[in-house]
Amino acid sequence: MKQVEIFSDGSCIGNPGPGGWGSIVRCDGTEAELSGGKKQTTNNEMELTGVIEGLRSLTEPSAVTVTTDSQYVVKGMTEWMPGWIRNGWKTASKQPVKNRQHWEALNALSKTHTIKWRWIRGHAGHAENERCDRLATAQSARHR
């Protein structure tokens, strides 16, 4: 099974507002930068989209380490997801899960790969996170 690293970040100017995401996908000594954005979105949607698009770029099942500064993404995938599914996509407070279609896409993609979720502090000098932040911020500005 291929070993893959995905680094990802999301950005939003205002929340909601124009937003962007950036990802770095590293495998077998090669690296690809991915990015995109939307005119009207939220920071959390962009955080999710960056990881989703990084995983979608993979061509075969892989052992993936996803590194993000988004506790929302990491906790969603490692702590909250089973309860949401069990409760019919409702939170513990019986509210509909926000960004459900993104969570469903991420859940489906996570079944294709073996994923280790890694949270890092944002804006703390982590080279790949800083690069993803620049990609995401540039997309946010582009979608203004």
Helix and strand layout, with pairings?
Blueprint: E1 2-12, E2 17-27, E3 30-41, H1 43-56, E4 62-68, H2 71-86, H3 100-112, E5 114-119, H4 127-142
Parallel strand pairs: 1-4, 4-5
Antiparallel strand pairs: 1-2, 2-3
Helix pairs in contact: 1-3
Offer a quick outline of the entry:
This protein is an alpha/beta fold and 144 residues long. The chain contains four helices and five strands; from the N terminus they run E-E-E-H-E-H-H-E-H.
What report would you give on this structure?
The protein has four helices and five strands. The chain is α/β, with parallel strands linked by helices and 144 residues long. The chain has one domain: 2-Layer Sandwich (Nucleotidyltransferase, domain 5), CATH 3.30.420.10. It has a five-stranded mixed β-sheet. The longest helix is centred in the middle third of the chain and has 16 residues.
